[in-house]
Amino acid sequence: KPNIVDQILRKRDLLVPIVIVLTVYTFAVTGEVRYSIPEEKTRGSFIGNIAKDLGLDDQRLKTGRAHIYTEGGTEYIELNVNKGLLVVKDRIDREQICERIIPCLLHFQIVLENPMEFHRVTIDIVDINDNNPSFTKKYIRLEISESSVPGALFSLPSAVDSDVGINTLKSYTLTPNDHFKLKMQAQSDAVDGGEPQRSGTVEINIIVLDANDNAPVFTEDIYKAAVLEDSSIGSVLIRVNATDADKDTNGYIKYFFSHVADNAQGIFEINPDSGEIKLIGQVDFENRKMYEMTVEAKDVGGLVSSSKVIIEVIDVNDNVPFINLMSVSNQISEDSLPGTVIAMINVQDKDSGKNGKVSCLVSQNIPFKLKSSLNNFYTLETDGFLDREKVSQYNITIVAKDEGQPPLSATHSITLQISDVNDNVPKFEKQHYTTYITENNAPGSSFFSVRAKDDDSDLNSRISYFIEERGISNISVSSFVSVNSDEGVLYAVRSFDFEQLSHFQVSVTAKDRGSPPLSSSVIIDIYVQDQNDNHPEILYPVLSKVSPVAEFIPRSADVGYLVTKVVAVDKDSGQNAWLSYKLVKPTDQTLFEVGLHNGEVRTLRQVMEKDSSKQRLAILVEDSGQPSRSATANVNVAITDNLAMAFTEFSDFAQERSDSDIRFYLVLALVIVSFIFIVFIIVLISLKLHRWRSNKLFNECSNRTLPVIPYYPPRYAEVGATGTLCHVYNYEVCLTTDSGKSEFKYVKPTAIKNNWFLYISACHASFGIVQSRLLF
């Protein structure tokens, strides 16, 4: 009870903690603690042990980053997190905070995080007698008619005491005199009731006037009016009226305010002639809901009467709701479960009634919802599962709307980032690829690339490529192709031969760098494309140097007679294996022809007597590749009706061919011997010149000491299927300065990592060394 609390506080400066346990909500355990303290306590004054009163561990205040959240205004209370104490932060003046409102309460919340919770705390500010009663004027001038009868009343202005309760005004006293005494009206005090008492004084000057025996009388003891807080300046609120029974000038009445509170100064104005009270300033329901004023009516003779005017301010919906974020997270993981708390929100509206009732909601079509925990307190939670790959950032708009007419609303946006988890497998553009590589390719050349996409971000989306190990004709696939782990580019490890391997498959795996990593594979069909790298091979006629093949036709052969058929094949495929046949250098161009595509040799006309009995045909077999390759088939044709004579003629023909071949080889041998002789002469002259120059250089550097600079040739890798390194030997040979006769000093072989090098160093010129190496 407030009166009991006041009595206790007057006797002892005690702090009374009152704990009221409220409801336990889904997101936090909430309680209410109430303390009472007198105003004007010094900074740092003890209020209460909030940790103990709430049943919290001191460490919980530190780990929960406990802090005070005030719904508005100045923060007067401070939280000592280390000790769990509430202390005074700033001077508390009850009159400044609450004016004459009883009780005077300060409300705030203790907010903790991890997990989020808050506790309501109420501080009851108890009044102390720290204000003197005061009059609005230091001097009062009273004009009193000489005809005033004993008991006549003269209105005096009321004194004001900002304190409340027993500390407010209690009584008035008047200095002793023979003519006047005080008569107090209801609720009119002079000296306050505090301990010690405080008082205020005013000097009254009384002017005795000529007789005016009738004072003005108001028609109402109390006038009441109402004004909307958004009323325009100049609006007439009420009209007060008083009458005077006197006539003439003694009956003329003037109206004026005798007492107006400080917070009403400059807001209302009274017409001294008509008694109309107008609005000349702005009223605000949220600052003050009612105004009380004392109006006096005074006639010319100085007789005065007074009446009270009460003006009530009616609230209108002129305040926009206010959204305050008590605690907020700017980032959550995409695997957060529904119901994860993102923010704690408090909404306020300074209006009253329906104008001050606020509903809160979030924008639609997003996986978030608002959940009300206490009046005007909300939690923003997830309302479904999140997927960063679909939406990586949400702009959550919170709308607070009151129930006024028309309703007012406010919005606040929260930008929430969704952090990535590795929940997406790398995906190739296709599930199966087909590519081609031309045979006889250069080892190490790229021929294809694959690309996988991972919808995750950062490390979760960084992809490495690998070739799954498998055999191709019992040979590891890594002997055929390799892949760039970062770019997915495929490289040929060896040179391919279409005639040996025309097709094989490779499986490439794409793996991300998440934890745990995710991967997927794709099959690539690799087809080796044929090149025209094979000459046509003639199967018939069979080439033989011992016994040339000959065809026999009778002289009576008709036109189109089939002499023979040239048969050839090509190991290449496709267009490279398409063969055509042409007749070149025939003995008689008018006698034979060859089929372009079938290789059939036929007669073009009848054989005549003048035709030679021995015919030699050269048939060119050519493929259709680019560039084309060809082979030549020689066919000997004997024209005769006598088979025995044909054999004799064919033998002569073969002998002539043999003699022709011998002459060809003799000419070729003569050319080669002549070329070798010329080369020998050139080399001999060069050696002579070189030896002469070397002797001259050796003589110049005979007095100089030259360093031996070792040289290690690079290691050579065999280009082939085995990949075996060649054995390389290293020898060091040094020439003396007078070694004109090519004297050498041999040093034993030196082994460097199982690779041997032959190293020869020779003195050459005045500053260099001739080096050479042999590779075995």
From TrEMBL:
Alphabetical UniProt keywords: Calcium, Cell adhesion, Cell membrane, Glycoprotein, Membrane, Repeat, Signal, Transmembrane, Transmembrane helix
**SUPFAM superfamilies in the record:** Cadherin-like (SSF49313)
- GO CC entries: plasma membrane
Highest taxon listed in the record's lineage? Eukaryota
The reply on keyword Zinc is no
**What organism, scientifically named, is this protein from?**
Erpetoichthys calabaricus
Check the record and name the PROSITE patterns matching this protein.
Answer: CADHERIN_1, CADHERIN_2
Localization per Swiss-Prot or TrEMBL = Cell membrane
Summarizing the function annotation, the protein's role is: Potential calcium-dependent cell-adhesion protein. May be involved in the establishment and maintenance of specific neuronal connections in the brain.
Q: What range(s) does the Cadherin domain occupy?
A: 111-218, 219-323, 331-428, 429-538, 553-641
Q: Name one GO molecular function term.
A: calcium ion binding
What biological processes does GO assign it? homophilic cell adhesion via plasma membrane adhesion molecules
Query: Under which name does UniProt file this protein?
Result: Cadherin domain-containing protein
Q: Which InterPro entries match?
A: Cadherin-like_dom, Cadherin-like_sf, Cadherin_C, Cadherin_CS, Cadherin_N, Protocadherin/Cadherin-CA
How does this chain sit within the bilayer? Single-pass type I membrane protein
Residues of the signal sequence? none
Membrane-spanning residues: 12-31, 664-687
